[in-house]
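Internal ticket - ligand job 313, adenosine monophosphate:
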Amino acid sequence: MPRIAPRIAGDEALDEAFAILRDGGLVAVPTETVYGLASRADSDEAVAAIYRAKGRPLFNPLIVHVANFAAAQRLAETDERAEALAAKLWPGPLTMVLPLRAGASIVPAVTAGLATVALRCPAHPLMRALLECCPFPLAAPSANRSGAISPTEPAHVAASLGSTVPLILDGGACATGLESTIVALRGECQWQILRPGPIERERIVAILGAGNEILEPASAIEAPGQLTSHYAPAKPLRLDAEEAAPDEFLIGFGAIGGQVTLSAAGDVGEAASRLYRCLHEADASPLARIAVAPVPEGGIGAAINDRLRRAAA
Ligand code: AMP
Ligand code: MG
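stdout (structure tokens):
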């Protein structure tokens, strides 16, 4: 059967995107982190279509995207900690896990039946424009088959999901390029980072204080995005490579060159924005294996190394 390619269009397609979502369909959307696969979060059928398109296990909950903090307050129980985080870091690549509000217009499939909901207010102007038109919240995991490399360009979405998504809103290459930092607010004062990301731990400590941080790793059942193998290319991946074996595609960093480089200048921000593009290129190359040069841990380097370890697992 011929595979029909999804339509890729810019802000001229906003009305069309809204109409598809309103009617329970899927639209791939740009965010500053990675491309998302959006559906309305208040419809069982619409949310089921996301899990089906991604081949995502039903126990892995979805992040809900909102236009502003007021919209978040309609879906979750917020307190002054959530307010402080939102005031400083929204819109932006921070997801908060909060108690689900009774009667919130979120179907149980979104939270995988948990009593909490993960909320994010994205910064990308096109996604913000879409959220402004939508009177319903949008569930949106990354727009790729489950477990595979995240998409940072429309072409990555089209290659991974094909015609299962009719429309990809084209917002260019993702500026940040790594999934959001996820922080869970627990009880009265405790908090925990469930996934490292573009917002560094230090910035959250500056707002919530270090004293109440839970440092143990989150349980796999509660945060399945923390699965050991995730964000993975199809080929074996070797970390901390100084040079390539003959059958390896080397992804360089700094002084270590390669077929491609995360950042020749050794800039971790640039490396984050290029990580998934480089992994996609490595996966598509004729070479059988992938090797990646060492990336320092500082700043967003911690999140890059988290993703690389999961990609190699
Ligand atoms: P993705 O949309 O692929 O970036 O993955 C979203 C991730 O958010 C999930 O895999 C979970 O780790 C996390 N998440 C979403 N909702 C919750 C929740 N209610 N509690 C804890 N983690 C969540
Ligand atoms: Mg994902």
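Auto-summary: The first strand starts at residue 7 and ends at 9. Residues 237-312 form one domain.
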